Amino acid sequence: MERRDFFRKSFLAAITLGTVSESLSAGILDFNVPYEFQGDQELKLHKIDGIEFTEIKMRYPRQVGKNSIKPIHGFGPTMTVATLKTDKGASGWGQLRSNLKDSKDAFEVIKGRSVTDFFATEKGIIDNSAKTFDIPFHDLAGQILHKPVYKLLGKETPETAKCYSGMIYFDDLELPDKTAGLDKILEECQFDINYGYRQLKAKIGRGNKWLPGEEGLKRDIEVTKLIAKNFPNIEILVDGNDGFTPDGIMDYLKGIGNIPLFWVEEPFVETIEKYRILRDWAKNNGHVKYFADGEANPDMNLLAQLEDLKLIDVCLCDIMGYGFTPWRNLMPILKQKKILASPHNWGDFLKTVYTVQFVGGYGNTATIEGVTCLSDDVDFGDYKLANGKYTPSNAPGFGLKLLK
After folding, report:
1. Reading across the β-sheet that carries 368-370, which strands appear in turn?
2. How far is 179 from 163, CA to CA, in rounded Å?
3. pLDDT, tens digit (0-9, with 9 covering 90-100), for 87-132
4. Cα 22 to the chain's mean position, in Å?
5. Are the C-beta atoms of 240 and 267 separated by less than 8 Å?
6. Cystine design at 316: which of 182, 294, 374, 395 (Cβ 3.0–4.6 Å)?
7. Pair type for strands 389-391 and 314-315
């Protein structure tokens, strides 16, 4: 058995992206069916013949603190990205969907093969063995065809959506007294508004782990009221990270009174019963525009039921954890159901960029999660945040340059 065939069979046995038996709601292709898009003849001429793995560092503009379940998030991640190269001198790079070892094994499968053996512009990844290179293949196709990703997705003029700052965590708890802590929250909100955001997402659920329950609830309410009072023209989103019960989140909503919320995200570990209790109450109480869920280890069949029952309004699956190609296949289903999208991006600005391009091609998005980052290792190109929206770069692929 050739080494490449060995790796291919081993890799396919170890990693499953999807089969025909899975729910359509997962937005997954059947990789058992050969696929070739006749419009990709230029891509077909390129064979994968090299790869580079590079470690890069992202820096947040400030330390990011706790949420309802996790400790301090720190100053930004270090990650490994991959650059795929072809025999004709083209290259494309991006984050990986698998760990480094599995990604190295996956390269042994794709090496020497045509781009179109693994990728089609109208679908994305078409072979499970290339799953980890979902982003690099999209970038590579854009580079070869001289098109930004949103044009690969079918839009000549990109769609845009609102973009919120996802960085208002429990930083008030890191300072020695309450007044200084609340001032810290206001300082962070002002920084993000000056940066260009017109929506702010505040973490709630301090009583789940870090403060006694009643005290934590009071602080959540106080912080929300403080943001609303000081920034009346800013839309507020809140995120419980599954730190509440239905009664707990309803107590919070009662506590903030008539403050309008753009959305409530992940109030509790989702079930149909819990969401029915909350949504029945919310029909006549509170001022919540959307309920959003599906970020944390989503059960796609349960998520589909919540959508079908109109118990949630926005689907939050992660742009990398769930995947760019699965999102491409999921979006038409969400549109049919009249459910909005907002791929989860927390972690780094690269994910925000990927989502900005995705939304540019598909629209149907409530808002985009902005993760403000600086980096000496990446040129972020011409992505600009203006009036609370990011406009996609028109440069080929994702419009990013790797500087290392």
Report:
1. 340-341, 314-315, 288-293, 261-265, 235-239, 199-203, 163-168, 368-370
2. 29
3. 999 999 999 999 999 999 999 999 999 999 999 999 999 999 999 9
4. 22
5. yes
6. 294
7. unpaired
Question: What are the C-alpha distances in Å from 161 to residues 180, 341, 366, 389?
Answer: 34, 11, 7, 6
Q: What percent of the chain has pLDDT over 90?
A: 89
Q: Are strands 48-57 and 78-86 parallel, antiparallel or unpaired?
A: antiparallel
* Domain at 3-147: CATH code: 3.30.390.10
Q: Is the pLDDT of residue 29 over 90?
A: no
Domain residue ranges in the chain: 3-147, 163-402
Going by DSSP bridges, is the β-strand pair 163-168/199-203 parallel, antiparallel, or unpaired? parallel
What are the distances in angstroms from CA 10 to CA 31, 82, 131, 137?
16, 21, 14, 21
- List Cβ neighbours of 202 (8 Å cut-off, separation of 6 or more): 168, 185, 223, 224, 227, 236, 237, 238, 239
Tokens 């019960």 sit on residue: 245
Contacts of 201 (CB under 8 A, 6+ apart): 164, 165, 166, 168, 236, 237, 238, 239, 265, 369
CATH number, span 163-402: 3.20.20.120
User: Which of 67 and 27 is assigned the larger pLDDT?
Assistant: 67
Contact 246, 278 (CB under 8 A): yes
Residue at token pair 């990789």: 31
Tokens of 249: 């989140």
Check: CB of residue 398 under 8 Å from CB of residue 94: yes
pLDDT at 33 over 60: no
